[in-house]
Write a structure and sequence with these properties.
membrane (chains A, B), 23 helices, disordered N terminus, homodimer, about 55% helix, 3-stranded mixed β-sheet, elongated, Cl-channel/antiporter (chains A, B), transmembrane (chains A, B), CBS domain (chains A, B), mainly alpha, disordered C terminus
Chain lengths: ~700, ~700
């Protein structure tokens, strides 16, 4: 598919993609009769009006343009005469069977390798935490000595500097991987995957070096204490695994394994990328159904039963494998207990009452408003960042600054907030030494346990700990700090997901909401702030990303229970509705910021009544059924189009200003033209020796609509 | 869309749907040049070849034809000039918003009313069981006296005759509802819903009288002890609810509430029917995600994000409401504990090991083979039934016979098999009096508990009871008997589902498989036959219906756990693959038997290389842009087509045998023509007074492709 019309703004150094440089036709303006010229005038006025509106919008919103860097993927099956001949051969059924078997094989491998990547990331994060807590901090704290604690701040400064230094080191690795190796590996990768699944070829998005930068980078940025999750990057990693395995070769390594050649086209690759993305979600949350629904919801322009079933297979294999590896890593080899990377824990008390529904709806409203605020601020921040932090060193410096501030704020909060709870109040809290901080013996610092635990552990403890585990002040401060830090972190040049930080911030204010409800209506027993934390987490995340179906499924699967399905769903629905009043989802906003020409589900409001022929040029770069090689080469040199329509004839029309194209005969891809020229598949024409030849010709009327690389 | 080409065989009393009775054109055969006639000859030969193949297949397989009773639904949006004018009006955005709000409202109502129907069925079955056990049997058994039991068979004969008589009474009600009120209410209704969702207008499938017959009938047939489930009919009921509420009127009652007029077209109605079907699944199994996936998998020809989200909403509301009602019915009002109608219970021991995977795969193979056998036998049986049991009385008699034999076989087995287990071996078994039968005090009859419990309770006890609860003989006999009875029952004229009977039969042989594994490898501890029962149940059902994605989700949700997701999925995959070697799924087989012209996902093998223009007639019943009313009336009288292409011109072509149609301008529906005639929207033509008028005219070039009810 050639460039999309309408919003395209081409950069100055590329040629106009809609201009035919070698059509050999002047624009003829013979006003043969009044009616024709009147119609033309009307159309020209419309065009002028449209272009004026377009110019206006360009002036006011300079980022509202689309980059010409992106081309479409080619999903058309070239059903040409060669293909149909092959179909009639006796072994064709066997070939189909073999391809079908290979699809399943590839999906199996995608599941396994995605799980390996997930397990790698998880284990790396685990080790880095181990080093931080058990080696550096334990050593320093023990050196400070028992008697000094709580009195000498100087020793704590040493601890803090060591802590921040270690964080900065890891974040620097992550940032350098993104800045110097694979820029596309920055962020969560979900916007890029969404574009890819909807048919946009994003350069380098599914390369091996992107995968390596992403996997190592996200382990470093999460290990480095940033407000970042490993779940979004897992989805991107799964997608790269899907693309890589199905193609049987790697551009980054320059290796071609020579397998799965039948899948080397955009259509098959897109299918496997969607399976990989589903496997990524499945590995990240232990949510195979959620993974499938994610791929369907985000890559929503296709739906195919068999493909969905294979996606489901990949997801299941991925969840299964990651559990197997992690059970082996944790010393319980062979047991396939179900966890995934982000395990939200099981709610003991699974019941809620009808009168709690309005409260959940209110949480949805709050989540929608906060989510919209987050998106607005993050979009503005990203715009400023594009302008003012554009150099490589500047971006590296910003990453280090974020890491330092994140670490410093955590320590500052622990200094400032005095929320000591007796050990035993919260059975889910792990009592390592750092959590004690300034508290007396037999107590632990609730603030420290929130800030210094694994983010997933913090989510679990907000969901499941008893009502008095966290003070209201702790929750307010934690929620605001995490909100702001996440705002700052999402968009810097490190691989970083949004899911866990958004869930954490939401869980904190949701829990606070639950505590307030409990104080306001003391007569009602059975309020469990953990449920409100769950609702708040869902609301905050839903308000930011505006996903609905898949997020409900993911939350249900990550909590391993469907009891809270209805409240989660209502919360997500309300959060999306409220958020959509203000702005669009964060991923869509970032897609816009990257100037990607994606077509969403719904047409933009303004364009509802505009027909395609109003915004598309009619003098396209077309080919006739017989073309000279010279013209083909000229066209390939002077345009970047991915494909060209093949028409009956390109002739001057006596009455219209446009050439008379006759009827559309088919469509030929740039890659097919290259292949034909490479293999010199054209006919020498004896009569004129200096011009190469008849190049392309349809043999038969049957070819109508099916022209392709014959 | 007009009638589909190819496999259509029209019945003798209807006219040829492809013949244009009033085109006013003879077929011209002017062989203008050699090339043309050669091409024509070649085509005629192809046609002859094709028609010969077609005739052959007709001779060998007489049911391989399609009935002309079915027409397509009209999914096209008629985007005509009126519509576009309305779109430009200032209040148009408000209208869109109102329609969107109403869609959600309707989906909410669909959820609530589907749940009400589900609760009604459940409560009716409960009462009928109550009458049977607590009134009739308890009275009779107590009359027989304690001392006689086990010695006098005479008294048991009385009990048996009362039992069978009661069953026959209920089944007679169900059968009469189907035979005399709504024939379409027979069976599970899933094949019909599948057709409807794929665009076939099945007469009366979504009428209120169908719903009532279905709901009351299924309560009677399940209460009457048939091997029938209430889950399939629930899906059909949900679909009817969806259609009824969205249309705001009822044909059966002749009432028009005058609401939701904007949804009175096939496209909107199909969407709401899919939401209703999803809500039905959700209510039946407590599986909201499974419901959505069911609608997507079965009605797979569409996928739309917003629609999916509304389907999910309906499903959630439905699950929620049914739980609320049933919790109130069971005396725990207000608690939204999650059950649904078919509750498979929770597995206590949730773990399995990697080496068990091959065993699950083997179960999948067995399930596939048994499922294919079931489908083969049931298809043959249905064919014979169509021929030999065609009278209404004959069908009623068959239903009564099935009811009597089902009851009798149950008693016979209890007489023949002596499987007494001490009470306490199986804590899940309910110990009502009938279960004791001939056993000593302190024991109960395992056979009786299988045959006389609610089918859902039997499934639960096969899944969860300890290893020694059932003897191997009991399981073999029960499995075979249930298999055969289900085979006989599915297709008789009562509303009856297939899910629970298939699950029961599969659970029995799956449990047996588990016991055998345990005996073969006594060294391995931890074999839980309940897990194998689950796998067997899934395999048997999957082998019969060949559903995959949705069935996995339903099983996962009905067992309230995702731990067994992978084994269930593998089992279903293998069962489908193995079954597909032999024949197609039972629902598809029944669709074929009903001669419905459905187009599946994959083209039939033979037709892979056939182009549409080979099988479709080219001299269609077309309209010109200006037509006389007389011709329109004539066409409407003489054809049954749902719509007509509008073309440039219908003129004799000088060279071709077909008329020259010019270009296709659009498509006009039969219903739109009726509306236009009804409201006399046509122009009187003064020049010729005896002919009514110019009837239809496109005003503008813009109309191209968008002709409709202007």
């Amino acid at each position: 598919m050639a460039a999309r019309g309408g919003r395209i703004r081409t950069s100055s150094n590329s040629i106009d993609p809609n201009e035919d440089p070698v059509a050999g036709l002047e624009r003829v303006m013979s006003s043969s009769n009044l009616q024709d010229s009147a119609r033309r005038r009307r159309r020209r006025e419309d065009e002028l009006l449209f272009s004026r509106q377009f110019d206006d919008s360009e002036r006011t919103d300079s980022h509202e343009a689309l980059s010409a860097r992106y081309e479409s993927l080619n999903y058309e099956v070239s059903e040409n005469s060669l293909y149909r001949e092959a179909e009639k051969k006796p072994y064709h059924q066997m070939t189909l069977w073999r391809i079908s078997r290979n699809r399943w094989l590839v999906c199996f491998l995608i599941g396994v390798f995605t799980a390996l990547v997930a397990a790698f990331i998880d284990i790396m994060v685990d080790y880095s935490k181990d080093i931080k807590f058990n080696w550096i901090l334990k050593y320093l704290i023990s050196k400070c000595g028992e008697e000094e604690r709580g009195t000498t701040a100087g020793c704590m400064w040493t601890v803090m500097i060591a802590w921040i230094g270690y964080n900065c080191l890891l974040v620097a690795i992550a940032a350098m991987l993104v800045i110097y190796v694979a820029p596309i590996a920055g962020g969560s990768g979900i916007p890029q995957i969404k574009c890819y699944l909807n048919g946009i070829a994003i350069p380098e998005v599914v390369r091996l070096k992107t995968l390596i930068s992403k996997a190592v980078g996200v382990a470093c940025s999460v290990g480095g204490g940033l407000c970042a999750g490993k779940e979004g990057p897992m989805i991107h990693s799964g997608a790269v695994v899907g693309a890589g395995i199905s193609q049987g070769k790697s551009y980054s390594l320059g290796i071609d394994f020579g397998v799965f050649r039948e899948f080397r086209n955009d259509r098959e690759r897109r299918d496997f990328v969607s399976a990989g993305a589903a496997a990524g979600v499945a590995a990240a949350f232990g949510a195979p159904i959620g993974g499938v629904l994610f791929s369907l919801e985000e890559g929503a322009s296709f739906w195919n039963q068999n493909l969905t079933w294979r996606m489901f297979f990949s997801s299941m294999i991925s969840t299964f494998t990651v559990n197997w590896i992690l059970s082996w890593f944790n010393g319980r080899s062979g047991w396939l207990s179900w966890t995934g990377l982000a395990n939200f824990g099981v709610f003991e008390d699974k019941e809620y009452n009808v009168w709690e529904i309005p409260l959940f709806l209110l949480i949805g409203v709050i989540g929608g408003v906060l989510g919209a605020l987050f998106n607005y601020l993050n979009t503005r921040l990203t715009e400023y960042r594009k302008i003012y932090v554009s150099s490589k060193l500047g971006r590296l410096f910003e990453c280090l600054l974020v890491a330092a501030v994140s670490g410093f704020l955590g320590f500052l909060t622990i200094f400032a907030v005095d929320d000591c709870q007796p050990i035993g109040v919260n059975p889910t809290a792990t009592s390592n030494q750092i959590n004690r901080m300034w508290c007396k013996k037999g107590e632990y610092s609730a603030v420290a346990s929130l800030f210094f635990q694994n983010p997933e552990e913090s989510v679990r403890s907000l969901f499941h700990s008893p009502i008095n585990s966290f003070g209201a002040t702790t929750l307010i401060i934690f929620s605001i700090e995490y909100f702001l830090l996440t705002l700052w972190t999402f968009g810097i040049s490190v691989p970083s997901g949004l899911f866990i930080p958004a869930l954490l911030s939401g869980a904190a204010w949701g829990r606070l909401f639950g505590i307030i409800v409990e104080r306001l209506f003391p007569s009602i027993t059975g309020i469990d702030p953990g449920k409100y934390a769950l609702a708040g987490a869902a609301a905050q995340l839903g308000g930011i990303v505006r996903m609905t179906i898949s997020l409900t499924a993911i939350c249900m699967e990550a909590t391993k229970d469907i009891t809270f399905g209805l409240p989660i769903m209502l919360v997500l629905m309300v959060a999306k509705w409220v958020g959509d009043i203000f702005n669009e989802g964060l991923y869509d906003a970032h897609i816009d910021l990257a100037e990607v020409p994606i077509l969403g589900w719904n047409p933009p409001k303004m364009s509802r009544n505009i027909l395609a022929d109003r915004v598309m040029r009619k003098d396209v770069v077309a080919l006739e059924r017989r073309e000279r090689v010279s013209r083909i080469v000229e066209i390939l040199r002077s345009t970047l189009h991915h494909g060209f329509p093949v028409v009956d004839r390109i002739e001057e029309s006596p009455i219209e200003s446009l050439p008379d194209y006759g009827r559309l005969k088919g469509y030929i891809l740039r890659s097919q033209l290259f292949k034909l020229l490479e293999n010199r598949i054209f006919v020498e024409d004896g009569s004129s020796s200096n011009l190469p030849a008849d190049f392309y010709e349809c043999q038969d009327d049957d070819e109508i609509g099916n022209v392709g690389g014959a």
